[in-house]
Design brief:
There is one protein chain. This protein has 362 residues and is of the alpha/beta class. The protein folds into two domains: 175 residues, Glycogen Phosphorylase B (Rossmann fold, 3-Layer(aba) Sandwich), CATH 3.40.50; 163 residues, 3-Layer(aba) Sandwich (Rossmann fold), CATH 3.40.50.2000. 41% of the residues lie in helices and 17% in strands. The longest helix is centred in the N-terminal third of the chain and has 14 residues.
Length: 362
């Protein structure tokens, strides 16, 4: 019997390595909510390949008493030392209350994606803002993906440990080497050999501001550079119209996951994340591990991964002028190799040592 519990929401690809480590190294059983309507855009098959734990599920909160009875059963059966919960969810609230009602001596730790922009008032919802003011009092600690946010929680609640949303670089780089032949075929197919390739990898929705990336790229007038947009969403038609109007000749590839996405990281040289609101932005970690430079919005929690050696942070203003200047400067850093290879890792924080430091702080 495992002695700790992880009660997540969905098995997201950017949380798989954390769950693997907790399962193997922290005596932890991993549970996620029963599958419902897919709102995440993840390929379940791709995620399943990376899981080294037995995938278990617990009921959705909408199941009412069945959900609550299941949580009671888990807590009574496991008698865990630590229960990891997601954000300030209903499950997090229920576990905090049940811990006291059932008199279980355990710690409840929230894995929270809050960015500095969010705690400073730019929240996704009023409900989350209100929950942030109340739920932390019932938690024993929080794992936070930005060091400034961890300090904010420490100052407000006396709780907060920093661990960013990062993947195990060994898994990613093994995959990058495996898909090199696919990368070479794609680069040849799309005429990208020798080009400086700028990637945008995100859902095509208003918050991501991909139109800002297209606008900024159009000001570069650099024939050696090509913009590749990976993702799908409600703004796709509008973005393609903007691309035609500005004659940026961007490649729109739709959603890419698994090996297909890894292959594009091999081809890319710079990743742009131009969101006006972004809890973290796990693609920044993946791109840095793959050796891309990052041009990242200051609104994204992942901006904490950017330093002078691997990219720049910018303010996502309405006209894209600052983004254009920063992107042009970073493209000047790119030195194209005559043949496609796995580029050197540019991530400043290795997965396992960073996670061990966070866990020891708990």
């Amino acid at each position: 019997m495992k002695h700790n519990l992880f009660l997540g929401v969905a098995i997201a690809p950017y949380r798989v390595d954390l769950c693997n480590w907790l399962y193997e190294s922290y005596d932890c059983d991993i549970y996620h909510l029963e599958p419902g309507r897919d709102e995440w855009g993840f390929d379940p098959a791709d995620v399943a390949k990376a899981c080294r734990f037995e995938r278990k599920h617990y009921p959705q909160p909408s199941a009412g008493w069945r959900w609550l009875r299941y949580l009671v059963s888990l807590l009574k059966t496991h008698r865990p030392e630590v229960v990891f919960v997601s954000e300030f969810s209903l499950t997090a609230v229920a576990v905090c209350l049940l811990k006291r009602l059932l008199r279980i001596r355990c710690k409840v730790v929230s894995v929270c994606d809050d960015s500095l922009d969010m705690v400073q008032g730019n929240d996704f919802s009023l409900r989350h803002r209100l929950a942030r003011r109340l739920v932390p009092y019932g938690l024993d600690n929080l794992i936070l993906c930005n060091p400034d946010v961890a300090r904010w929680y420490q100052g407000r609640f006396g709780k907060g440990v920093f661990f960013p949303i990062i993947a195990d670089e060994r898994r990613i780089r093994t995959g990058l080497a495996r898909v090199l032949p696919l990368s070479e075929r794609l680069a040849s197919q799309y005429g990208l050999s020798g080009k400086k390739v700028v990637l945008s990898v995100c859902r095509l929705v208003p918050l991501k501001q991909v139109e800002l990336t297209i606008q900024a790229f159009s000001t570069l007038h650099d024939p050696s550079a090509r913009l590749v947009i990976i993702g799908s969403g409600e703004c796709e038609t509008k973005l393609k119209e903007q691309d035609r109007r500005l004659e940026t000749d961007a490649l729109f590839l739709g959603q890419q996951t698994g090996d297909d996405l890894l292959a594009w990281y091999n081809i890319g040289d710079v990743l742009v994340l131009s969101s006006r609101q972004e809890a973290f932005g796990a693609v920044v970690n993946e791109a840095l591990v793959a050796g891309l430079y990052g041009v990242v919005s200051e609104k994204a929690g992942a901006s904490t991964l950017i330093d002078d050696s691997n990219g720049v942070v910018f303010s996502p203003g309405p006209d894209g002028e600052e983004l254009g200047e920063r992107l042009g400067a970073v493209l000047g850093w790119v030195e194209k190799s005559p043949c496609l290879t796995v580029k050197p890792d540019r991530m400043p924080l290795p997965f396992e040592p960073t996670l061990k430091t966070a866990m020891s702080a708990l």
